[in-house]
Sugar ABC transporter ATP-binding protein
Amino acid sequence: MREPTEPGPTPLRATAAPAGPGGASPRASSASAEPGSTLPRVSSAPVVSLRGVSKRFGGVRALVDVDVDVHEHEVLAVVGDNGAGKSTLAGVLAGAHRPDSGQVLVDGVPVVLDSPAAARALGIATVFQELALVNDLDVVENLFLGHEVGSGVFLDEVEMERRAWQVLDQLAASVPSVRDPVRTLSGGQRQVIAVARALLGSPRVVVLDEPTASLGVRQTAEVLNLITRLRARGHAVVLISHQAGDLQAVADRILVLRLGRVHGAYTGETSYEDLLAAMTGAVRPGSGTPMKADQARGSGTGR
Ligand SMILES: Nc1ncnc2c1ncn2[C@@H]1O[C@H](COP(=O)(O)OP(=O)(O)OP(=O)(O)O)[C@@H](O)[C@H]1O
């Protein structure tokens, strides 16, 4: 079905998950930058792009003409002051907010993300700040909630437990037991469980909305390690964060939103002072730090 507001190619509805991390994307090696993009150029094709995306809530312009590209093997941080549009951007990628205008593209093909299920089917998983874990259920039950393995009323607990450990091992997660209720876990471990649940759908893009917001130093370090591992495994990570330490530790590129617009794009090495100046509008829009493509991409560079 064609997007009602947009001319151009027919958008895809979610019918099958595209190639996941580790699997080659058919378009992954072509040039990606386009005229007029506010983002610095990078060397491979984006997995997901937003083009001219706008979203209003009543009289509030939450996103205005936003262009962004998301690449595999990369952590793209999205920063901005309160109300800058960060969560709305996450919501568009998650299929929770339908843009009023503009396009979402997966592998360069326009798609319709009109539900979280549609986004997941197209390889985009989002972990919101409220992790939506059920406190009294154990780790396995939370991971497979609604997607239980087994037939009829008989659940294959052994298989679910095996898969739970498998995904947690992939993340090098230190969880004492997968049979403990998640309320007994630390904030960092709960974040890991929420990410592990997202990974069970084999997404290419993982969107994390303020994953360290309420965590202590050690738990934050756990989550930042987790993000590094996601990138090393080939995922594209979109990190919505307020935390300077998060950006310095893991971001390859940093997109600054201000009043719903892209204010500039910066390298991961940009000082927090410079980012703050951009977030608060103390520097002109579009004056992001120029950077080389390989600086921008991360790709297991050991950052
Ligand atoms: N569901 C909604 N209904 C009405 N207005 C909304 C809704 N969601 C967001 N907004 C408004 O859109 C603007 C952008 O909000 P958004 O939550 O995306 O910003 P943010 O950068 O994530 O802010 P914060 O850091 O405070 O969470 C704000 O003015 C907000 O009040």
Notes: Residues 3-22+44-133+203-300 form a domain with the Rossmann fold fold (CATH 3.40.50.300).
